[in-house]
Design goal:
Elements: H1 8-20, H2 24-27, H3 35-50, H4 59-65, E1 72-76, H5 82-88, E2 95-99, H6 103-112, E3 119-122, E4 133-139, H7 148-158, E5 159-170, H8 175-187, H9 199-208, E6 213-225, H10 228-238, H11 245-255, E7 257-260, E8 266-278
Parallel strand pairs: 1-2, 1-4, 2-3, 4-5
Antiparallel strand pairs: 5-8, 6-8, 7-8
Length: 279
């Protein structure tokens, strides 16, 4: 039997009370509407902070943008700072623009990365001059962007010639896409909407955005845990699920491939897609 942590009923009740004050237009998630992210920010960050070694989805991006000390880097949809922190440690002699549309996530990000004076927090990409950045990157927020072509064009416009914009997100037609569409959307107070990427979609976005070159890779990324209970709590909190832990784990087990390593760790295999757009 999985043990339970926290009172989901109370947290869900608070969220519902908050949402009742909003109009339907306000709770519709768009590229300009940050409602869902503000509601789930604390729950999401709880999971990330408690299980700091679970995620490995930033490694491809770090390797492919090849951070240098004096780089000027733009991070789009920076969230609560998971990738921001990794990049900031490597470009202390440069500038890191951390952009997000959700104020609460940027607030958490700034507290987490407060020791880095070279990070500038922004909500609007238009505040950055064209051709002023060496690299741009985005992890995990891509599927929430309604106009992915315009975002890619905007990111490339901020880059110097030869610069790269690297994106990492959940893959379309996959276990994680079905989990979002069939579980997360149905049992969270905010629902979930996403435009998930395929290899063809990324290649054609690169064409629309007039990238000089587009490279795409699709593969499973292991999320590592010590126990089934840890898997359940991570998924419950990171997606703000209104489910007890035992039911949360049953859902994860039903949708995802879970492998056991020789060291006893459990790896939830999450399908990701990564793209590198070169200007």
């Amino acid at each position: 039997m999985l043990c339970t942590h926290g009172n989901l009923a109370n947290s869900a009740g608070f969220a519902m009370s908050f949402l009742k004050k909003l109009t339907w237009r306000e709770i519709m998630q768009t590229n300009l509407d940050d409602t869902r992210f503000n509601v789930i920010a604390a729950s999401y960050e709880y999971a990330i902070a408690k299980y700091p070694d679970a995620r490995n989805d930033g490694e491809w991006l770090i390797n492919n943008i090849n951070v240098q000390d004096r780089d000027v880097i733009l991070e789009i949809s920076a969230g609560t700072g998971f990738l921001t922190q990794k990049i900031a440690k490597q470009n202390t002699g440069g500038v890191l623009y951390a952009q997000d549309i959700a104020p609460k996530t940027l607030e958490i990000n700034s507290k987490k990365c407060g020791s880095f004076e070279h990070i500038n927090y922004i909500t609007d990409l238009n505040t950055i001059k064209d051709e002023s950045c060496d690299k741009a990157v985005s992890l995990g927020g891509w599927h929430h962007m309604e106009d992915q072509i315009s975002i890619t064009k905007s990111a490339l416009s901020k880059l110097k010639k030869g610069g790269v914009f690297c994106v990492g997100d959940f893959s379309d037609d996959s276990s994680i896409q079905r989990y979002f569409d069939e579980i997360v959307d149905n049992i969270t107070v905010t629902g979930h909407q996403g435009l998930f990427a395929s290899k063809s979609r990324m290649v054609n976005i690169g064409r629309f955005a007039q990238a000089a070159k587009t490279d795409v890779e699709v593969f499973d990324v292991p999320f590592n845990f010590d126990s089934k209970n840890d898997i359940a709590e991570f998924f419950q909190k990171v997606f703000a699920l209104d489910l007890p832990l035992e039911e949360t784990y049953e859902g994860v087990e039903r949708y995802f491939d879970i492998k056991q390593a020789d060291n006893g760790k459990l790896a939830v295999m999450v399908p990701y897609i990564y793209a590198k757009f070169t200007k």
